[in-house]
Amino acid sequence: MPEDLVHPARASSACRATFSEFIWIWNHSQDMPTPDVHLRMARWLFERWSSGDRELLLLAFRSSGKSTLVGLFCAWLLLQDANLRILVLAGDLPLAKKMVRNVRRLIESHPLTGGLRARRSDQWAGDQFTVVRRLELRDPSMLAKGISANITGLRADAIVYDDVEVPKTSDTPDKREALRERLREAEFVLTPGGLRLYIGTPHTYYSIYNIELNGELGESEAFLSGYKRLEIPILDHRQQSAWPERFSLDRIGDMLSKAGPAKFESQMLLKARPPSDLRLDPERLRVYHDDLIYSESNRTASLTLGGRRLVSASCWWDPAYGAPEKGDANAVAAVFTDETGGYWLHRVQYLTHDVRLLDNVDEATQLCRQVASLLRDLHLPAIVVETNGIGRFLAGLLRQQIGWAGLRCSVLEQVSRTNKDLRILEAFDAVLAARRLSVHDSVLRSPFIQEMREWRPGARRCRDDGLDAVAGCLLSEPVRLPRLAAAPPREVSRGAWRGFGPFRAEGDFSP
User: 30 partner at 20 to 30 Å CA-CA among 69, 89, 215, 316?
Assistant: First the structure.
């Protein structure tokens, strides 16, 4: 028996038993051993609670028994103060009820908690129960709720977030945003100074458990910033098993081979990665920081990037209306190629309109002006507008804006008839495999990289607007950059359609 634990017969008072002692007494009564990994969790929880820390995060590998141990912790807390109200929130209701039922049965059988059991059957249910307590409180001692349930009106002194991040709550950007919002709402039912205890494993690259900002939702700090953390991966820094009695190195190796490296790292090593292999791996991109340099010499134009001469360019726009968070996003992409055939993704721009300007400038005009500004900044000779939807109307409006800006840029219209998933696969597979696609560092700060990580063929509700625009660039016939420098832009009449203003031609003939 570990030296810091005491035999049940020598426990002078139930309330003065440490949490480690409480666990050992329970396991002893059940003829079960107490593994070191559970003692490590128990000591950490006891130390944090005794130190007054009330924002805790326990990450431990799958099947480590963390939920069972936290259930024991809840029973121990009620033993210390029977007036506590504990709310269990989980990814779904059955999971939350499982913990509450486990704690109820534990209180019924633990040698130290017999006095907590209520006499009335209506206070001893499967999804909630109330122990014998001094205060008359409206809320039960322990209550189970799914993360999507309505908890308005509840009050709790402690909230246990048991695996609230699971695939069905985190596999799309919309679900991750909704999860964070639900977790923030739960704060309003917690009494001042109450306990927040998260337990789980990461299920997405953009996990709520990340220490560093992931940049997905524009947060100014990590979601659980300031929380005291304990992380227990299945392998320690010496590559030894955290629970050798149950998980030998051979068994761990077998788990790795069956689950695959991505899922194993996420669920067993606690590294925030998608649970399945990436179809479009951003790690295959080459990043550069150079800006375009345009120069003229003897009326010969040249466009270079990091000392490489660029010979062609592709620009693709698939227009969309409406709020980007509720429908298709407006994405325009520009890809250049050099003399060796390398691809340089220099810009992926997600367009939005300013609702404050709608009384004076309509949405379509705002979008076209942004595209025209991009064409000017990147010295692009042509742009392809996908005309499956509203693009048929916007192509003409874009020509007008280009003309008013005095640009020499062609607007090409194209209808896409290929399935979008097939188009993206066809465009990206070869260049990523060969590592021939380089991206400007500005692209890394856009939603494009997130789209790559999240994209799966056939998946619904995954953002792919930037991917689609870049795929259009890669698959379209590139336009050769002009060798002759463009003439200085002339004044263009604002009343002219497509940018061609009136002009006077001098002739030497008589009528």
Answer: 89
Task: Give the helix ranges, DSSP H, for 249-379.
Answer: 249-259, 261-267, 363-377
Query: What is d(CA 457, CA 251) in angstroms, rounded to the nearest whole number?
Result: 32
Cα-flanking dihedrals φ and ψ of residue 405, to 5°? Answer: -80, -5
- Rounded CA gap, 119 and 129, in Å? 11
Q: Does domain 282-498 have CATH number 3.30.420.240?
A: yes
Average per-residue pLDDT in the chain?
84
Q: Which residues contact 234 (CB under 8 A, 6 or more apart)?
A: 61, 64, 241, 242, 243, 247, 252, 268, 269
Residues 310 and 295: their CA atoms lie apart, in Å, by 12
Please answer whether residues 79 and 16 qualify as being in contact, where contact means their C-beta atoms are separated by less than 8 angstroms. no
**Bridge-based pairing state of the strands 55-60 and 156-162:** unpaired
Extended beta strands in 228-329, E state: 228-232, 286-288, 292-297, 300-305, 308-318
Task: Give residue for tokens 């696609």.
Answer: 437
Describe the strand order of the beta sheet including 190-200 as a list of residue ranges: 128-129, 142-146, 86-90, 156-162, 190-200, 55-60, 228-232
Chain segment 38-82, per-residue pLDDT in tens: 999 999 999 999 999 999 999 999 999 999 999 999 999 999 999
Contact 319, 330 (CB under 8 A): yes
Specify the pTM. 0.64
Structure tokens at 253: 């190796």
Count other C-beta atoms under 10 Å from residue 101's C-beta.
17
Q: What is the mean pLDDT of residues 255-260?
A: 82
What's at 500, amino acid-wise?
F
Q: Which CATH class is domain 8-267?
A: alpha beta
User: How far is it, in rounded angstroms, from Cα 91 to Cα 80?
Assistant: 28
Question: Domain-by-domain residue ranges, the chain?
Answer: 8-267, 282-498
- Taking only the tens place, the pLDDT of each residue in 388-431 is 766 577 888 999 999 998 888 999 988 877 778 888 888 888 88
CB distance 265 to 203 below 8 Å = no
Q: Are 466 and 446 spatial neighbours (Cβ–Cβ below 8 Å)?
A: yes
Distances (CA, A) of 259 to 252, 268, 275: 10, 10, 9
**Can you read off the two tokens belonging to residue 235?**
């392998």
Q: Do domains 8-267 and 282-498 have the same CATH topology?
A: no
The answer for 260, left when phi > 0, alpha when psi is -120 to 50, beta otherwise, is left
Beta strand ranges found along 150-244 (DSSP E): 156-162, 190-200, 228-232
Instruction: Enter the DSSP assignment of 4.
Output: T
> Do 472 and 417 touch, CB atoms closer than 8 A?
no
